[in-house]
Amino acid sequence: MGRLVVVSNRIALPDHSKNGAGGLAVGLLDALQEQGGLWFGWNGEIREITGEDEPLYTEQDKNITYAACSLTQNDYDLYYSQFSNTVIWPAFHYRLDLVEYQREAWEGYLRVNQMLAEKLYPLLQHNDVIWVHDYHLLPFAAALRLHQVKQPLGFFLHIPFPAPEVLMALPDYQEILRLMTAYDLLGFQTERDAQAFLSAITQETDVVTVEKGIYQAYGNTFHLHDYPIGVDPDSISKLAQGPLPPKMQAIRKELGDAKNIIACERLDYSKGIPERFLAYESFLEKYPEQRGNIRYTQIAPTSRGEVQAYQAIRHQLETETGRINGKYGTMSWTPLYYLNQHFDRRLLMKIFRLTDIALITPLRDGMNLVAKEYLAAQDPADPGVLILSKFAGAACELTEALLVNPYDRDEVARAIYQAITMSQSERVDRHAKMMAILQHQTITRWRETFLDDLYQILE
Ligand code: F6P
């Protein structure tokens, strides 16, 4: 078996890994560790333009080589902030109103993909298998193929793939589809995403079905499948039950006897946080007797802060928090806590275990691993309730959650009421059914299934 080469926009360098790293990084690190490998990507730094080619930053940690490069400010702006996060991200999350298309950004996106491919190419060995991640790198395989790279190339899209009529709003969508077919294996979070890709491409060109899941288009043969990403429920459960840091005693006290709602995500408009605040307000209006007995904590660390739409939503949340607390709070009760801060994952899992309800209502989401982490962190004998948007990929599997339409405030308000009044036996029952799914579809199974399929392409 050859080396595994993982390519992603950001890479988790060794000093950030394992303990503090998220589940995905840990899942990938385990695979790289087991079979030996290379992790290649951007090191998160911006460099000065010196006119000289900057050497790659490399690091060896046991079985894994890390190779990373920095970006110039111009590359970062065009490739990352503009095309990745102001064109693809909003469009793929159905927010065409937030797309700001510029041809210069598209060209920068292609150029940076080519630059990254050029840097990776000399590091490749003939029997490597290459696994590329996410929307920053849709054209990466095509860029590598220009160097006659013959190794199998797999791609996994962590975010949703939009319906064709949404995709078609992007001026370069045909080129995006064509470039994506340079991968040998295209993996999506759900069958809905994989089908959306297939119908978009079928509308554009002649697609030959070799067999179910294997297609030919634009002179390329590619495999297409869904691989719902999972978590490692056992390690999350351990983190959630682990020794309580001193900080935790204070948090436990602050949470008090009220019913506690928790939500945690990057501050992103796709997560539906302002809509959720309004749904919580509807709950306070509809069930006034519950005021004083409930507390909603929203953790949302700033993300992509240089992009205008992210600055706007941050201001919106600050305003809404003040308005809701000003309107409903009393001298002794604050209904909504909004924490624009990063929380250590180990602490977060403990907080999840102490809370009664997770309110996870993205307007669109590829999967939503927080929903799965919340479930895994619970005490199975007395678990909390998951309220989940039907537009998160996780809703395809977690049908025992209280599934809601995040745009429907009344429905979300009713779900909060249902959650706080749900009997313990119903909570236990729903939780157990969802845990069985989580135990089956783990992060390990996700990567093993994907890699098995990719290795089979070799045979
Ligand atoms: O959800 C897509 C994703 O790329 C995740 O894989 C990642 O955790 C997150 O976005 C981080 O975004 P950024 O690198 O822009 O901060």
UniProtKB/TrEMBL annotation:
The protein's Enzyme Commission number: 2.4.1.15
Function: Probably involved in the osmoprotection via the biosynthesis of trehalose. Catalyzes the transfer of glucose from UDP-alpha-D-glucose (UDP-Glc) to D-glucose 6-phosphate (Glc-6-P) to form trehalose-6-phosphate. Acts with retention of the anomeric configuration of the UDP-sugar donor.
Description of how the protein assembles with itself and partners: Homotetramer.
Name of the protein this chain belongs to: Trehalose-6-phosphate synthase
InterPro entries: Glyco_trans_20 (IPR001830), Trehalose_OtsA (IPR012766)
Gene3D superfamilies recorded: Glycogen Phosphorylase B (3.40.50.2000)
Family of the protein in this entry: Belongs to the glycosyltransferase 20 family.
Record's keyword terms, sorted: Glycosyltransferase, Transferase
Pathway membership: Glycan biosynthesis; trehalose biosynthesis
Protein source organism: Rosenbergiella australiborealis
